[in-house]
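User: Please predict the structure of the protein below. I'd like the answer in structure-token form so I can feed it into my own downstream comparison script.

Assistant: Understood. Taking the following sequence of 275 residues as input:
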Amino acid sequence: MTRHGKNCTAGAVYTYHEKKKDTAASGYGTQSIRLGKDAIKDFDCCCLSLQPCKDPVVTPDGFLYEKQAILEYILHQKTEIAKKMKAYEKQKAAQRSSSQLESKSEERERMERFKKRENSIVSKPINPFTSGQTSGGEKSPTDSALSSSSSAFSSSASSSSSSSSSSLPSFWIPSLTPEAKPTLIKKPSKVVLCPMSGRPIKMNDLITVRFTPLDSSLDRVALLTRQDRYVCAVTRDVLGNSVPCAVLRPSGCVVTQECCYIIIIRARAPSGART
């Protein structure tokens, strides 16, 4: 294939060169491009404020937060849950009152139907041999039945036409304008979830973290300007994003995972095998 064939756009196949060219022109990059250091949060920064922690705490899942930020988040979530619960209780009370009104209206309609049925009972006997109008100028029962059936048919037809016309929505008639039904509120959960892991979080589960500074004589401003700020509390190794760390629950000191494994192995080893 000649070189000018790479720029050919009449082919039926989306070639690798065309795909690579379009990817470079789009500006979004590919999955093989690594993220820069500016896009990665430092290990001692809060997951909410993304700033270096002054009073850090860590969750049992290993997410670091500023104590003030995570407490404000928990209080905010509790107030939101209380608002949602109040709205849910209000909706539940409205549904209860509407169900009571519907039951009362159904009972009233049942009584009205019973009254109409009782009033329609004929108290005088009907003579089947008389036809047409009676001497008093009254209609016969057959004529009244026919007239009643025709009136019932006409009323049913008019009611069906009115119901069909009323069921159709119309945006030009105010009475037939469709309305959006209110959405039902589900019962909210009273559990506060961690913003990072999505698991339940409590204030008592937060563990206070104590970082060991690289130079204890430096103040906080001078310490934050340094690239290497903290070291392991036992081995004095410099901590960083590439160094796996662990927090000791009783003291809150931060150590490397290698140091933690060595301590655990030595503690579990028999006394004669310790070096």
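That's the full token string. The chain is about 40% helix and 5% strand.
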